[in-house]
Amino acid sequence: RWRADGIALAGLPDRDDLALLQYTGGTSGRPKGVNLTHGAIATNVSQREGLLPTRAGERILCMMPVSHSYGMAMGLFLAAYCSGTLVLLPRYVPEEVLAALGRERITVFPGSPTLFTGLMANPQFAATDWSAVHTCYSGASALAEETLRRWRDAVGAPVYEGYGQTEAGPVLSFNPVRGPVKSGSVGIPVPDTEIQIVDVETGTRLLPCGERGEIRARGPQIMQGYRNLPQETAQTLRDGWLYTGDIGEFDADGYLYIRDRKKDMLIVGGYNVYPRELEEVLVMHPAVLDAAVVGVRDDYRGELPVAYVALRPGVLADEEELIAHCRANLTRYKVPARIRV
C-alpha cells in the first residue's frame, strides 16, 4: 500500500510472516533463535483459550521475564486477549509478590514449581490475601504432586498445570477448566494438536498408554525452525514432528504426564532411571523442601543417582533417614547412592 505522496505504508502481516524470534537455551546451553510466525502465535493463543477460557478484564500478576516463552504466553498474550491488566514486577522478590496479590486484587496467578515452593516457605505466605485469585497456572517444569497438594490446600484456588516449550509456540497441553484436573498431569493436548509417545532410541515406534518415551508433537503452532541453524532444526523437526526431548506417558484418559528430560535419564545397571521420580519421592518426606537428583559415573553400574535436598526451615533430617525413606518408596536400583543436605 502506498500514500498519495509515494511513501509506502505497512500493511497487515501475513500469517506466515515471522512475528517473533525467541531465544531458548534448551538443554544444549547454546541459545537458539526460534522462528515463530504470526499464524503460529495467534493460533496458540486461541488453543490455550480453548482449554483455559479467560474472563474479560482479568488482573494478572507477572513476575517472570516476559522475554521467556512462559511469561510471554501466560502473561503478556493472555492479558491482551482478555483485555485485562498485566501487573508486572521487575523481578521475583517473594515479599513483593505476596504484597502485590492483595494490593492489586490479582485474579490470575501464573507460577512455576520453584516459585510455588519458595512462596510457601516465606513467613508472609500465611497472611497473604488470596481472596481475589480464582485461577493459578503452573508451567516451566513439572510440579511435584506434594507441592501441588500443599498449594491447593493453602490458597484455595485451583492450579491448572500445563506443558510446552518455546519451539511449540509455546503451549502444547493443559488441564482443562471444563474437565477433570488430574494431580501430577499436564493435561490434554490443546485443540488441533497431536502429541505422541515414541521410543527414545529411534523416535519412530509408538508406545502404548502407561509406557514412557519421548514426547513428540505437531500442530499449527510449531516453530518454522531454529534461526540459521539447519542441522539443529533437522534434529528437532523430523517428518513434521517436533521432538521435544522430554520423557512422558499418557494415561487411559489421554492425560499427559511429564516424567523427565531425555538427556537427564540415568542408566543404572542397565535400568532406565528418571531423576524426577526420585525427586517426587524425596519431597514427600515432611522435612524436605526441594530436591534435585543427578547421575555420577560408576565403574560397576555405569551411573549412580545422587540427590541434593534442601530442608524446610527449622526441620532436621540426615542422610540415613532420607535414604530409608527412599528405600521404602522406590525399587532398590532407584534408591540414591548418596544424599547431600
Quick description:
With 341 residues, the chain is of the alpha+beta class.
Tell me what you see in this structure.
This protein has 341 residues and is α+β, with helices and mostly antiparallel strands. It has helices at 38-51, 69-81, 94-103, 113-120, 145-155, 230-236, 275-284, 319-329; strands spanning 18-24, 32-37, 59-62, 85-88, 108-111, 135-138, 159-164, 171-174, 188-189, 194-198, 213-218, 225-226, 237-238, 241-250, 256-261, 266-268, 271-273, 288-298, 302-311, 338-340. The strands form 6 sheets. A 5-stranded mixed sheet has the order 5-6-7-8-9, sandwiched between helices. Strands 10, 11, 13, 14 and 15 form a 5-stranded antiparallel sheet that branches. It starts with 17 loop residues before the first strand and ends with a strand.
Overall SS class? alpha+beta
What is the typical, i.e. mean, pLDDT?
90
Task: List the helices and strands in order.
Answer: EEHEHEHEHEHEEEEEEHEEEEEHEEHE
Rg: 21 Å
Rounded to the nearest angstrom, the distance between the terminal CA atoms is: 65 Å
* Number of distinct beta strands: 20
Give the strand order, joined by hyphens, for the main sheet. 5-6-7-8-9
Alpha plus pi helix count:
8
Task: Outline the biggest β-sheet.
Answer: 5 strands, mixed
| Outline type | globular
Provide the low-confidence segments as ranges. none
DSSP strand content? 25-35%
Q: Percent helix among the residues?
A: 10-25%
